[in-house]
Design brief:
The chain is α+β, with helices and mostly antiparallel strands. It has a single domain, classed as Thiol Ester Dehydrase, Chain A, CATH 3.10.129. It is 24% helix and 36% strand. A hairpin with a 3-residue loop joins strand 3 and strand 4. It starts with 6 loop residues before the first strand and ends with a helix.
Length: 148
Amino acid sequence: MSVRNWFELRLRVPYDAVDMMQIVHHSGYVVWFEMARVEHARSLGIDFKDLVLNRGLATAMTEIKLNFHSPSRFDEEILVKTRIASAGNSSTKFECQILKLSANSHPSSRALLCSDFAILVLVDTKTGKPTPIPKDISKKIASNLGFD
């Protein structure tokens, strides 16, 4: 399958994300992955606010798997990367990575901190049941996957 380039979101680790050991608490990574998925969708012209408010649709996470490779600390600059790995009738699978950026911003100097995959299912907000991805959104996803 042809997968397009990664979507990238730069962040700096905030103080409230670290725990008593002065490393990022595991829950912080989940939040950052979600932020990157939403921004990635926005970059494709998919508006989650419109989905919920005007179409009565929402996404439900049905599966998530995180692998921790190295800790991150307060004030480190990180790069959150995400891409759509595949899409089904009502679901989308995302792959994500969080990398530590160093003073040397060369890609080879970036340390992998956390990797993840997540499956999100589109649901009808009234019934809570899975619903097919609308054609206009499906086309944007297919284009991102290289099927245009």
